[in-house]
Amino acid sequence: MFYLLNNLIQMKILLNNETLHKTLKPFDNIGFVPTMGGIHEGHISLINKSIKYTDKTIVSIFVNPKQFNSKRDFISYPSNIKNDLAILKKIPKIDFIYIPKFKDIYESKDKSKIVIKRSDKILCAKFRKGHFEGVLDVMDKLTNLIKPKKIFMGKKDYQQLFLVKNFIESNYKTKVIGCKTIRNKNKLALSSRNFLLDKKDLKKVENISKKFLKLKNEVKKHKYINKFLGQTKRKFEKLLDIKIEYLENRNVKNLKISNKYLKSKIFLSYHFKGIRLIDNF
Which residues have a catalytic role annotated? Predict the structure, then answer.
């Protein structure tokens, strides 16, 4: 009990930019974990990495409306500040939680000038117009405010990690560290959107995930991997009663389409009962 209370005293919640600047000013080696809430074990693994490799760790909780290309998706996003704080307060050695308001992030009303290249309009960028411009915009603003030495992000959102890493490391003296995807005992990649599923549907999605994960070994047998994945996409849509946006094998270094097994990942996005889920393996 004393240990938990001691941790609550140490962790400081920052609710505006003035407090943020004043609190972080004395520190240099800051680790930053950006989140939109819906805290789960995947987030916790990122936080523990930051605690291990930096002197101070700050976690942000901010549901950024500018990265949603659907108002319905924004409204239904599963964020619960009270629940998130209850989870975060149990993590030893976490230092700061930053919970800004919209005006704290978007102090300037100037329109963002961030535009992603045509070659990057693949995978999620192809299906979510303006999404990554919104992601890069908020990461630009958060990095400028916090000035972290390192940012820790998960590889489940691999395209996001790829774009953010290239952007931030080109514009700041900040390293973006990609951390492994955390899966539950049934091999489903952890995601805040999983909270939108009831127990029955979660079980179905876990079974769907297992079927897709088996593809990683199956593609070894095929010379034209993406042709095989195209055939599998049509088969799985009927078999699993889902709508697949993409199922593609791409190079991990540049995200270009690849028919090679080595140094590549299979990227997946699909809709199950109106919920959009992504993975890579």
Answer: 43
